[in-house]
């Protein structure tokens, strides 16, 4: 048995350090170590990889990650109470766990963790989407992202064209990564239970994404999905000569955003870039 497995149960850690969950910090803790072990293993082979964990909380997933072959875990936590509560785990990890106190939205994770690196986290739901967009911008820096989202966000990430769930997040995620929903967890798996189910999703960087600038992709998807019920010839007026952009991208003016696949948006982004240069 490792020193990590000898640590007290997470419920005891929560009681001892008075870690009552704070809603503003998106705190829904996982206390079942079988479950956190399963999430850590879902990340795949982590041999030699530095894992970045956002929001270790009382450390359940962190314990799971330390029980893999990962070279080290760098955990970023905003709540000082949790930072105090993790002291025993840091000691038991014998140099493989580094805890950084701060806001993950501000963190320079590449500077904190040497390559090869992967991110594994049960994300605070209130900042999950901005964190993901930030990582997608530079996804080639990561081997994989294995992340817990609210089910509704996970559905949007993986949605295919043709439905209401298909939107900006679907296009930008699938443009940069292969998006794989892995498994769902019921609300009761968390303490306190959130309102809805959660889903673990893995994102693996695409080796050769359709060429386009990230900012241009953001602009065209915002315009098209911002008025998703309108045809492209109307919704794209806000960003330039809509008819000309659509023609250059090889799209049809009467199509609506939700019908356009990722490659179509990348073509539109390139046409938009060209129109600005
Ligand atoms: N990993 C733990 C688990 O699975 O039980 C806790 C997950 S809980 C959903 C989210 C964690 O992220 C909390 O510990 C919370 O304090 C932390 N957190 C919230 N906002 C954060 C931020 N901006 N930067 C870093 N950590 C944050």
UniProtKB/TrEMBL annotation:
GO terms assigned for molecular function? 16S rRNA (adenine(1518)-N(6)/adenine(1519)-N(6))-dimethyltransferase activity; RNA binding
The protein's UniProt keywords, in alphabetical order, are: Cytoplasm, Methyltransferase, RNA-binding, rRNA processing, S-adenosyl-L-methionine, Transferase
EC number(s) in its UniProt entry?
Answer: 2.1.1.182
Annotated positions binding S-adenosyl-L-methionine: 28, 30, 55, 77, 103, 122
Which reactions is this enzyme annotated as catalysing?
A: adenosine(1518)/adenosine(1519) in 16S rRNA + 4 S-adenosyl-L-methionine = N(6)-dimethyladenosine(1518)/N(6)-dimethyladenosine(1519) in 16S rRNA + 4 S-adenosyl-L-homocysteine + 4 H(+)
Q: Name one GO cellular component term.
A: cytosol
Give any Pfam family that matches. Answer: RrnaAD
Q: Which InterPro entries match?
A: KsgA/Erm, rRNA_Ade_diMease-like_C, rRNA_Ade_Mease_Trfase_CS, rRNA_Ade_methylase_Trfase_N, rRNA_adenine_dimethylase, SAM-dependent_MTases_sf
Source organism superkingdom? Bacteria
Please classify the protein's predominant subcellular localization into one broad category: cytoplasm
Localization, UniProt = Cytoplasm
> Which residue ranges does the record assign to the Ribosomal RNA adenine methylase transferase N-terminal domain?
35-207
Q: Per the similarity annotation, which family is this? A: Belongs to the class I-like SAM-binding methyltransferase superfamily. rRNA adenine N(6)-methyltransferase family. RsmA subfamily.
Q: What this chain does, per the record?
A: Specifically dimethylates two adjacent adenosines (A1518 and A1519) in the loop of a conserved hairpin near the 3'-end of 16S rRNA in the 30S particle. May play a critical role in biogenesis of 30S subunits.
Q: Which PANTHER family match?
A: DIMETHYLADENOSINE TRANSFERASE (PTHR11727), DIMETHYLADENOSINE TRANSFERASE-RELATED (PTHR11727:SF7)
What is the recorded name of this protein?
Ribosomal RNA small subunit methyltransferase A
The top of its lineage is: Bacteria, Pseudomonadati, Pseudomonadota, Alphaproteobacteria, Rhodospirillales
